Every structure is written in structure tokens, then in C-alpha cells.
Amino acid sequence: MEKIKQPLRYHVFQNIIFLIQDIRKEHPMLLLLIAVQILLGVVSPVFGIYMPKLALDLVMNQADRKEIFAVLGSFGLMMALAMALSGMADLGKYMLYNDMRRYYQMKLYLQSLSCDYKNVESEEGQTKYQRAMATLWCGDGSGTSQMVVAAIDIAVSVLCFVIYSGILSTLSFTVIFLLVILSLISLAATRHAQNYEYQKQDEAAIYNRKLSYVTGTGSDVQFGKDMRLYQIGQWFLNLRDTLIGQSGKLTAKIQNRYFGAGIVNAVVLMLRDGISYSYLIYAVISHEITVSEFTLYFGAITSFSGFVSGIVRNLNELNGANLKMNSMREFLNNTDEPDPEFPVELSQIQDMSMEFRDVSFSYQPDGKPVLDHFNLKINSGEKVALVGVNGAGKTTIIKLLCGFYRPDSGEILIGGKDIRNFRKEDLLTLFSAVFQELYIPPFTVAENVAMRQSGSLNRSRVQECLTRAGLWEQISQCEAGIDTPMTREIGEGLVLSGGQQQKLLMARALYKDAPILILDEPTAALDPIAESQTYQQFHEIARDKTAIYISHRLASTRFCDKIAFLKDGKITEEGTHEKLLQKGGDYCRMFTVQSSYYESPPPNRRHEFRDAKCTCQTFLGSDALCGQVHEGYDQNDREGEEDEQ
After folding, report:
1. Which of 171, 335, 386, 573 is deepest in the core (most CB within 10 A)?
2. Do 243 and 211 form a contact (C-beta atoms < 8 A)?
3. What is the mean pLDDT of each run of 10 residues along the chain (645 residues)?
């Protein structure tokens, strides 16, 4: 079923006022240039239609040459001056209103960096952003530029329409009525095509987003090795061609609507001008008007038709610009949930305990719950590990805790206060996190640690954090020290190994010095020894803080005060590492399977645990083999091992 389009949130006049307010703030001179162009845009055509009539009247009244040259010269000079000033105003206006696109592109970009996280991660949010940016991609055809130009032209056309209606009213009201009615038909035809284009914006945005991903990934040096090794370049080209073809079909459907509107407009133009000029010719032949009046009315009808067409055309342009402006403002103004009216002050928080009370959450309204009546209590200063299989909801817990998403039901408390009652900015100050995705922008080492510009960071503190994270020895060997740029994507810089990158992120967490630390499985690409060392190091820096650890490798979190095993959106087991092993449940089975990969059993020894209840204390990095007899262990395997011995 096709998605029903919601009514526009902002009408044309609201968007014009919105644009004027931003212009006044960013480029106030543009408003003056617009006013000058509107005034001169009205005066110049009036001079144009009166000058031929004036010349004929002077000649037919046998005026002397001096009078003719004086009158016509004065008119010509005023017209030339008006046109020159109008051209200067138009040039200055063009430069400034085009710069407004840069202004709005920056606003959209900054909004994408600070808006609610669901608008960055969700498909709906990405489509919203794509539509908003598309508003500004078309140069002179962008929404902001179109709105400025169309609004000016409409203002000029409406004022001229009033003046010319007064002139033509002395000829015939019927002519005025005919010109207006036929122009409204043209307006309706074009408006139909524009509304169809607006209805297809979401579909077009999805194609653009997918195409952007395919072309971006194909040209990203990070994936160059895989592209060549697996020879998938042609696959990407085929995918790109498919998307371009699908996008082209949609564009063709839209253009067909505009083609139909163009045919209607051509027929209307032929009828309008043909009937009007025929009536003028009849009037002058029948001596109802003079020859000089004929030139005046002829020029007036020609200009009137042009102004009516201009009003129609620019109303359509304004309608199209309004649709685009709605897309842009929809992202700018409607992407964030507001802060609470009476927020909790951080000074009211006495401890950093955290609690999930009966929390349920799913990413889609009708999707399967990722967390299902989830409950967890973390005391202040406690070190807790969240473990479980992929998709168990571990990272989702962190997203909810940081306020990136709101739970569908239940409460999340910090210090006994519901996090929905915190200001978003205040809530984020409570966390230092190292996530799965490495984020190391091409700034200097110091800027990457402090996550602020070099002029506002504490250099001695940066060095201290690098030292505590175990990375200072590497950085100190660089000629520029902490001013060494990171990555080589945009220039020469320092490239760190996987383990060193984790240390840099730990230094970043140290620098922020938030009361709650989060390690969300950033070590998945490291070897077990490096991962174990990283977790131990993180444990050291989290000594006096509340900390949450997420890892697939269970042995890395043995030092935690408490381990929570997640399954199907709930905690099924909870306790220390030793207690969970003694329990012999899911945690024990997963730990035993993992540890078996790092042991060195005899060649014929096969660990097959069927419903095993393991009390094995073997841990990652131990040279000792498991000496326990497990339920379900194959007796033949045991005898085979004894024979070998």
C-alpha cells in the first residue's frame, strides 16, 4: 500500500517569513537589494509601454523636434538608469541568496551531528536528511534560491498586474477576465505535476541514499583490497547501474507529468494571445481606439499576459520551493525530542547507580522486541559485564542508557532519577565510552584525545592520559608529538595499529573523566591476548568509577563484580564468573566452548559436551588443561586419551 502523504507543516508565507528572518540575520543587505529590485521591476515595464504611445502622440500632434527629443530623451534616460540599477541589484542579490544555500547546508550538517541519534541511525531519519540536503543541491533550482527569486517576481508581477489592470479596464473587463481564467488553467496543470513530484520525494531520496552508499563504498580506499581480492568491482558497477535505472524510471514518470503540463500551457498561451490580439485589431479597425492607444493596449496586453503568466509560473515555482523548504525544515525543526520542562540538575545526583526497570524496546513499531521487560541494577562504583550471543541486546542497553533512544515502556534510572528528566547535554556528560566503531578523525593526537580544538585543550593532561593508557612512548617518538595529525586519508599523519587505537580511545575516555565508563566491545578485531590486556588496562583506569563492559570473549570480563548473561532480551543468569561456572548454565557452556579453542589437547581428544555441567576453572591464557570429568563426555574419548598416555 502506498504511504499516505502527510499535509505540509509549513505553508508558503510561513516559509517566506522563515527565510526573511534568516536573511536578515546572515545577509541584511540582501533585503535592501530585494526591495530595490522590486521597485525598479515595476517602474521599468511601465516606462516601456508608455514610451511608444508618447512618441506617436508627439508625432501625430506635430510637436517640434526639440520637444520630441527632450521628452523621449528624458524617458529613455530614466529607463536606462532604472535598468542599470536593477542589473546591479540583481547581481548583488544573486551572490547573496546563493550564499544562503551554504548557510543552510551548514545548519543541516550541524543538526545531523547533534540531533537525536535515532535520526542518524534509522532508515527514516536518513531519508529525512537526504531529502533535506536535496533541497539545496540544485544550484539556482534549490528551494531557498527558488523561493527568493519567485517571491520577488511575484511581488513585481502582482504590482504590475494591478497597474495594467487599471490600464486595460478602460478597454474591456472581458479581456482581463479571459486572461486571468486561462492563466489559472495553466497554473492548475503545473501544480498537478509539482504535487506528483513531491509525493515521490521519499522514493527518490531512498534511491539517492543507496546510490550514494554504492558509489562511496566503491571509491573508498578502505575497501580497495576486498574489491580486488574478490573481484567484486563489476558487481558494484551492476548494482550502480540498476539503481541509476530505477531512479531514471522514477524521473521519467515525473517528467511526463511536466510534459503534459507543458502541452496545456502551450494551448492556453495560443488561445489567450490569439483572442486578445484579434480583439485589439477589431477595435482599431472599427475606430473604437486610436492608433496610439492601440500601441498602448497592445503593449499592455502583451505585458499583462506576461505578468499573469509570470504570476502563474512563479506561483508554481513558489509551490515547488515550498515543498522543498518543508523537507528542509522537517529535518531542522522536528528531529529532536524536547528537553524536559523541569530538568533534573546534576548536582541532585548523589551516586552513579543505574537501574533498568521493566524496560521493553524495539527499533520498529511493530518489530520484535530487542529488550523484553528487562531489569538490571548496577550499584555506584560497580563493574558489570554484559555478555551474550549476537543480537541479545547488549549494545541496545548502552544506547538506551545514554539516551540515544527512548524505551517503549519501563524506566531507566541514574542516581534514582529517570533519565527522561535530564537535559540531553547533561546526561551525555555522565558517560565516557569506547564503542565498537572506531572514530578517529584526521585531527592531531591531542585533539583526538581531548575531542576539542587545540586552542582549548589541556596539553599536560593529554600527555598524562596517553601515559596512563600506555601510548605515550609511541607518540613521544613522533617529531610533532601530540600535534601529529592522525590518519593519512587527507595528508601525512600517524597510523596506529588496532591495539594502539584502543589505547587512544581509552586516553580519550580518561580525558573526559566522566563518572560512568563504558567499553562496548571495541576489541573484537584484536587477538585474545591483546584484548585481555586492553580490558585489564581499562579496568585499571575505571578503578574509582562505575563501569560497564561488553564482550563476546567471556574470559576478558572475569574481573568484574557482576556478570549479566543476556538471552532473548532478558537477563537469564547473573553473578560472578565463578558462580556462573558453578551454575553450569548458558554462560558456563559458552565459556567452555570458547576456552577449548585456546587449549592444546592431544590430537585425538574431542571435547564434546552434551548438556555438560562444567565446573572447569580454566581461564584464557592458562597452560593447564581441564582435568574435570564432564557429564556427557564420551567415554571412548577418555579411553583413547588414556591409551595415548
Report:
1. 386
2. yes
3. 57 89 90 85 75 71 74 76 80 83 88 82 81 81 84 84 75 74 78 80 81 80 72 82 88 88 84 78 79 76 70 80 87 80 86 92 86 92 88 88 92 93 91 82 88 88 89 88 77 76 86 88 65 73 84 74 90 91 89 70 44 40 38 40 39
Helix axes 201-218, 123-134, angle to 10 degrees: 100
Number of domains in the chain: 4
Q: How many residues does the chain have?
A: 645
Integer Cα distance of 592 and 599 in angstroms: 10
The answer on 62 and 39 residing in a single domain is: yes
C-alpha cell recorded at residue 269: 498561451
Contacts of 268 (CB under 8 A, 6+ apart): 182, 183, 185, 186
Q: Is 309:127 a contact under the CB 8 Å cutoff?
A: no
Residue 377 belongs to a domain: yes
Looking at the fold, whether 485 and 625 belong to one and the same domain comes out as no
Write down the pTM of the prediction. Answer: 0.64
Q: Is residue 218 part of a domain?
A: no
- Give the Cα separation of 536 and 210 in Å (integer): 41
Q: Which residue has the cell 504611445?
A: 53
- Rg of the chain over Cα atoms, rounded to whole angstroms, equals 36
Cell of 479: 617529531
CA dihedral defined by 529, 534, 535, 537, rounded to 10 degrees?
120
* Domain housing 29: 12-189+256-332
The secondary structure of the chain in percent helix, strand, coil, rounded to multiples of 5, reads: 60, 10, 30
106 domain residue, yes or no? yes
CATH number for position 415: 3.40.50.300
